[in-house]
Amino acid sequence: MDSVTGKTPRQTFVFGQWILQSDGNLVRCGRGVHLPPKELQVLRLLLGSAGRLVTKDRLLDSVWPGMDAAEESLTRCIYVLRKLLEESKGYIATVYGKGYRFTGPVVPLLPVLEDPLGALPTELIAACCEPWSALQLADTWLALSMLGLCDRGAGVEQARAAVARVLELEAGNHQALARLALVTSLQGCAEATALPPCG
């Protein structure tokens, strides 16, 4: 809780090519995307519980507190989110009769410092992911590094760990090899800028 405002700061979440900022702005590839208030609350709950089931009752009670909201309202929110997030990514899974689960890798940034390195180690997350999920995780770290949202060297190293996991599972994965080339290039640039000047 913030001692000045008395409010609990909201977290920023990074997933795939998306950033849900602490102020509620949803950004993809540098562009803001409008997200209605109820859908925003549902997305926050799903991202905050990434990989775990969020029951319909919890969603209804949290998003429509003190109201007798119908499941159709929740279903409509999920539909809007899937359409917005391009459901081909399969981010939101339905657990029939129970609720929903966010299935993609999520990097929560610390609410105060916005420091993604406070999240679980990439090796741990990548070990539990399918190859495509680990590649998304690598993309997230690369984006954070290149946007200056985390320490560049540490972010690139986290991306390398995720790519290494994919290559352990599928040695010839062309997408992983392309990212490995980018990671290696970024590491070379970081090392070159850290060298003392000649002379």
Automatic annotation (TrEMBL):
DNA-binding region ranges: 10-104
Where do the OmpR/PhoB-type domain residues begin and end?
Answer: 10-104
What GO biological process, any one, is recorded here? phosphorelay signal transduction system
- UniProt-recorded Gene Ontology molecular function terms: DNA binding
PROSITE patterns documented for this protein: OMPR_PHOB
A Pfam family annotated for this chain is Trans_reg_C
Keywords of the record, alphabetical order, are: DNA-binding
Q: Which domain of life is it from?
A: Bacteria
- The entry's protein name is Winged helix-turn-helix domain-containing protein
Q: Which organism is it from?
A: Pseudomonas gingeri
